[in-house]
Write a structure and sequence with these properties.
Four copies of one chain form a homotetramer.
Chain A lengths: L1 E9 L4 E9 L14 E6 L8 H5 L2 H5 L4 E6 L15 H16 L9 E6 L1 H12 L6 E5 L17 H5 L13 H7 L7 E5 L7 H11 L5 E4 L7 H15 L19
Parallel strand pairs in A: 3-4, 3-5, 5-6, 6-7, 7-8
Antiparallel strand pairs in A: 1-2, 2-4
Helix pairs in contact in A: 3-4
């Protein structure tokens, strides 16, 4: 696998941006050269950055032998929407990055091979951006999503939420920024496969459960609950479930190969 | 905590080198500004590099609230000795880096506050460099050390061992490159505290056990065995034990604080 | 010299930040170990980031043999003030970074040894932050400063200036954000040494000239004009002048030593 | 343009390697999306690394608006050959990297669109690797090449040349490591276009001149001499000439567009 730290100009955000990318390395182990890779865009949580998943999960070990490209952007504390104060993060995540990947890398053109995923603020972002662009993302994974940002304003004292969602946060209640309304709005034939998980000790358990209840009939939905808090100890276990859900065929006999933890990238 | 990716000229190696450093951030949480930090120099295994511990262990989470500076150099496949073909890695690890840290950072001058640790090839390096410089390193930790490199030549087909240890690897049998002879040679008053661990399924179990048997009386030695292979699944558990052994007072009531896994660095 | 890419949590900005630092390497060439380094904080221009000076100037070559630490933060498009929408960049630049440097590095405690400098938006930031904190910065260098941001709003179509300066940009006219008022407000005994430069073809020539006319009597001011545009071709020449002005004694016989361009860092 | 810092496993070198890549950004300015980029592999000099050209030349500015991908590997002090002590750098540079680029990026399949270039030790590497693989590299550029490494052993006291070239450096006199013999050995129809330059004050002037005299008739050769030493002050001027030689059509009216030095990457 190749790991690239990218620095480029975002046309949507009109500034330099940085991202981490894990690129399958054909010829190493069992990867075939002619393959078009699957794609995962992986969103971090509030007060963190593009390095979060690399440092806190085993994402690098897990994808080492899979034909999957993983792209991890920085979302600052934008909640990944086109913010009230006009930073166009949704456009960046759901339009510019896919275009960038299709241009530069050997990625699959089929939406079934694309997954947008994230944790907490990133889970909200995955739901909002994914459900707004169902023709790009055939799969959406929400890890303990902050699905109603208004409810957690008090938990994020360092973030001026009105910059993102407007005074009184009414901007967050619009269709384009509300996962519940968005989920209801996607035409049946376009609906992505959904993966939802949240630990029972997580302060976001109820809202994730509520979201699941809304979508479980209409969408092809896979959910995981169980013991766990708002932390990577829980999400790392679910990440394995996510890979089994997103690329069962690529996993050998359904399990990760090799000796995770002690092989070279 | 601050994380620095360093690039500087090594006088010992006569080339540019790179290293990762985790620096305690006084003022954040409970760190006191006037403190001199403890130091851990952490060595990676064969066929890997300075990013290994950051990517495969929770070292960043574990030290976030500790007054401990962690320095992770790249050792290429040098086994961290002054090699037969004249790359002076031992001088770099055990002399130049400590001098560099004493010069640039607010580190403790006391050897009791310094620890040299590593896994596999890095465990061998920790033993060799640490026991050669007991006035610098008051603590040495060996995780599944490749303590007799000659025995594992067949396991490392990609490494031309004769560059490092000479034809027939006889250079590895000299006092200065042999952990067993070195351990026997350190005067009683200078002996560092030793931490040794190896899982029972590890192909290096026997040699680590043998090393332990040799030193357990003469050295202040702490050892961990138990189920486990040659991999980070095992080493990550031992890493927690290592912190309890190296900085029990700094851990609050002997345990890691906070929510490891979901706080910001 | 050591080059560190830093990643840490900013208490002022309440998010992870990144910065580049050039650290003198004692023992290499003529640097003395016991020295406390001078400090330059170097600010980039609009639509750029912390890598700008490293990539576009010879700053690394110029400081290789000087006992000067150079810190290059990212300012996004904040103009380095405490913005209208509440990102506290001025606090970050003028309070948190100096505190960070005093804590972690061997820097001089004397304000005479500290310089805040920048180009364009960064020149404005240097003037505003420096003149607001004259007890920290004994020296301020303005390269083609965007000293009246309101005047260049049309030149920066990608930046929503009202986020930074408020609707109608009236927030930029307050004392704390206006270099002209700030310069008039600093008590005589506290005034920093000033370095001002701007090329004659630069669209900011007039405003820099006007600033110079205001301060030239009251401040110890050094100015450079001459042929040149709003670009590094000009600023690189002035950067040499800045070093002669800021550390004449450290330059050997007043000139840069060695073979700039082909030595190792 | 996107700038990627790459980290991947080299099969030739059997270890993790790092490289810097500048990737054209279609859609930005005049780049067309359907284009296959030209490729430049750019080799650094002795005692330096993959960042050298980025930090010491204007390569980033120069290629910002060109459909050219630039790949800058680290060659340590290997002289880019398959060394006597068995590090297979030539295979890495001339086989593995081209294969890596063809696999991952949208690069031209035509050798006319590929250029291997370098300065000093990198100039030797460009000549040796390029002339050994004329079906891959249709263009080779030598900046002040260390074309007879034996002659400069005394100038590189930090490098144990016998590791690379064997005792008495006789390994450097073999056909596969000698630019002069290699140049004589390439069949007429396969010969790459050659670019050679060296300043008159450079201690390598004579050997570069001699190389030029040997190849000037048989090869399509472009040469630059003139005042200059062994340094980037000279090479930066020649770099502009190299671009005019390698991509005249892509330069607008033969000159670099825009405002080099003050635009965003």
């Amino acid at each position: 696998m190749a790991w690239a730290s990218l620095n480029f100009r975002s046309a949507s955000l009109k500034m330099p941006v940085e991202a981490e990318v894990l690129i399958p390395q054909p010829g190493y182990k069992d990867l075939k050269q002619e393959e078009n890779y699957k794609v995962i865009i992986l969103l971090h949580g509030a007060n963190n950055d593009r390095m979060e998943w690399l440092l806190k999960s085993q994402i690098m070990d897990m994808t080492r032998q899979l034909p999957v490209l993983v792209f991890m952007p920085s979302g600052k504390n934008s909640f990944y929407i086109n913010t009230y104060n006009n930073y166009r993060y949704k456009d960046y995540i759901a339009e510019e990055i896919p275009q960038f990947l299709r241009t530069h890398f050997r990625v699959s053109p089929k939406k079934e091979d694309w997954l947008l995923a994230g944790e907490s603020m990133g889970g909200y972002g995955a739901a909002v951006c994914g459900l707004s662009h169902p023709d790009t993302f055939g799969n959406v994974a929400v890890f303990s999503g902050a699905l109603v940002p208004k409810d957690i304003e008090k938990d994020l004292p360092g973030i001026r939420m009105s910059n993102i969602f407007g005074k009184n946060l009414e901007y967050g209640e619009r269709l384009e920024n509300d996962p519940f309304q968005l989920a209801a709005s996607v035409p049946a034939k376009q609906r992505p496969r959904m993966f939802v998980c949240c630990g029972e000790e997580d302060f976001l358990f109820d809202v994730n459960r509520k979201f699941y209840e809304q979508i479980k009939e209409a969408y092809d939905t896979t959910a995981f609950w169980g013991i766990g808090g708002h932390e990577f100890v829980y999400w790392n276990e679910r990440l394995k479930d996510m890979f089994k859900w997103f690329c069962p065929a690529e996993l050998e006999h359904g399990v990760f190969m090799g000796r995770p933890g002690n092989d070279i990238r």
